[in-house]
Design goal:
Layout: H1 5-17, H2 38-41, H3 44-53, E1 56-62, H4 70-80, E2 94-97, E3 104-110, H5 119-124, H6 132-146, H7 156-166, H8 175-180, H9 189-201
Parallel strand pairs: 1-3
Antiparallel strand pairs: 2-3
Helix pairs in contact: 6-7
Length: 203
């Protein structure tokens, strides 16, 4: 379960770039569900139903920025369902026992299970190393803020990413399409850890 459609298509295409076959009819594949926001994803009733319905369940959501503490919110929710979670996410992605025997719950907190932030900070690491347009997008976004742009300072990375994507051959494509078309890379350390966690979760 993920927060929204951008998250869904980003993860599907990232895994595809790593060789995961979403189209193999003989492979038992997970369904990636966009639940429509982090508050819905961390809803106790929804989690309880999902944990009772699936042998393997994975949650992918943003850590967000202070004052939010999404991990604490999830931990409180899970403990109400008699699932004990650690005080902080595991750096390589968290795996817990589910509600029923032989079931598993995986949790990945964007961007990397340790820093505050969102999927944009994860995507930032997929911009090709040394891309001069990316450096320009970052500087231009800073200058726009200095010129009074209403963009929130906390959204600097998000604004710079969308500026960078606006300057590609097909302007303004979503993250998932940028992954599929190889405008974005796929093999940052964070991406590799995510893929490893995914395979451990659904093995």
């Amino acid at each position: 379960m993920v927060e929204g459609p951008d998250d869904k298509h980003t993860l599907v295409h990232l895994l595809k770039r790593h060789g995961y076959d979403w189209d193999d009819a003989e492979l038992k594949r997970p369904h990636v569900e966009d639940v429509g926001g982090v508050e819905k994803l961390l809803d106790k009733t929804l989690l309880s139903t999902a944990l009772k319905s699936h042998e393997r369940l994975a949650l992918v959501f943003d850590a967000d920025l202070p004052p939010y503490n999404r991990w604490h919110q999830l931990k409180t929710c899970l403990e109400a369902l008699n699932i004990t979670a650690p005080d902080a996410p595991e750096p390589g992605g968290t795996l817990l026992a589910g509600l029923r025997p032989n079931t598993r719950l995986g949790i990945w907190v964007m961007p990397d299970n340790s820093r505050p932030g969102r999927i944009e900070e994860f995507i930032e690491k997929l911009v090709p190393s040394g891309d001069t347009l990316w450096l320009h997008a970052q500087a231009t976004t800073t200058e726009a803020l200095n010129q009074g742009a209403p963009l929130r300072q906390n959204d600097h990375v998000k604004g710079a990413l969308h500026a960078w994507l606006a300057w590609q051959l097909d302007p303004g494509i979503p993250f998932g399409v940028a992954l599929a078309s190889k405008i974005l890379g796929h093999d940052s350390p964070e991406a590799q850890r995510f893929v490893d966690w995914f395979h451990r979760c659904f093995s």
